[in-house]
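Good morning C.,

I know you're traveling, so I'll keep this short. The sequence:
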Amino acid sequence: MPRNESDYDVIVAGGGAGGVGAAIGAAKAGARVALVEKYGFLGGAATNAQVLAYCGFFHHGGNEAVQSVAGAGEEVRDELRRLGLDCKPYHSPTTGNWIILLDPERLKVALDRVLAAHGVDVFLHSRVAAASRTADAIESVTVAGMDGRFRLIGESFVDGSGDANLALVAGQPMRLGDGEGRIQAFTMPIRVGGVTAEGRIDRQRIIAAVDAFNERSPEKINRTDGGIYTRVEGSGDFWWLIIDREMPDLSSRSFTRAEQSAREMAVTMVEVLRDKVEGFERAYLAQTGPQIGVRETRHPAARYEITHDDVLQGRLREDGVARASWPIELHTEAGKPAYEFIGGPGYYHVPLDALHAKGIGNLWYAGRVIGADPRAYGSTRVMGTAFASGEAAGVAAALTAGAGQAPDAAAVRAQLLAQGALI
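The tokens, ready to paste straight into the viewer:
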């Protein structure tokens, strides 16, 4: 454990795809890096909310998967392959999206290994509790860990927390949800064991089971297509995205209500599956959570917000530092996702200023907290894109630490290309 006056070139808050990408990007650019994560494992929603798919590594649709994210994200895929996961693109029959199916336990180990290989100091069971800043720079963070509080001093910082926790304690202004009181619905993925391993799962019977659930349960499911489901990689378990919960606000009461009601729904849903769907006669609820899947919370002020039009036009830019290729996917109404697709070459550029905090020169954003307007956010938030924006933020933070001032986009792009990123 570092002593209170330890210092780093780059300190990253959050160990999801954005934070991991940032830590790898900064370390490969020569920085001394610390990463602070509140859970006892890395991976973000893929491991803490059972979202067992990486979205955003490939363009939407088509007969073949076209890759748009490499670099740090590809290093993680390579380590997963070494652990026996094939990481091949999977074409969702429901949405037409190409995704990568995950095993959360092997993912936890893969992320541990990749960060260790790059010499990143990882602090698990720890969270950023406070930040010390001057008018336009953060000087240090106070971390609350299992052994109390300690101070980490850094030259540059990356908020990859998903919920803008570092930006929040640094006093950064921010927008809640879409700025008009609406927050995208949360989803509780469920994992069902005891399912017959052979044969194809009949979607019409799944849809009928949802109808039966709605007759039995006071809490309703609004998805009419049977949701998104597949077998869990490496097992015969059934993984299902079907339970959505609206969030009126970010209060502890609302989170509690969403978590508890989603678990009750999961129990009833498995009872219905046993009664109604062939192959599920011995099914049991293997897992919910550990927490409900969070799509949206706070948006801290950035120097540029990616616009709805940027996404629809597939806008490419000289100051672009990452590719984003996931379509706009909005969950404004629980259970009724709405899609809009990317124009141009099938991806658009994330500009450097979307990763740079407005008014704080040494704070960078990764993953869900990068600058995006309410509609563009439906595209930028996914984990594949988070690896790309995170790696770019980590490189920018490392170059900031080395020069004492923010780099230009050309310098960040050059370093990213040397690291194998796609721009």
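Safe travels,
E.
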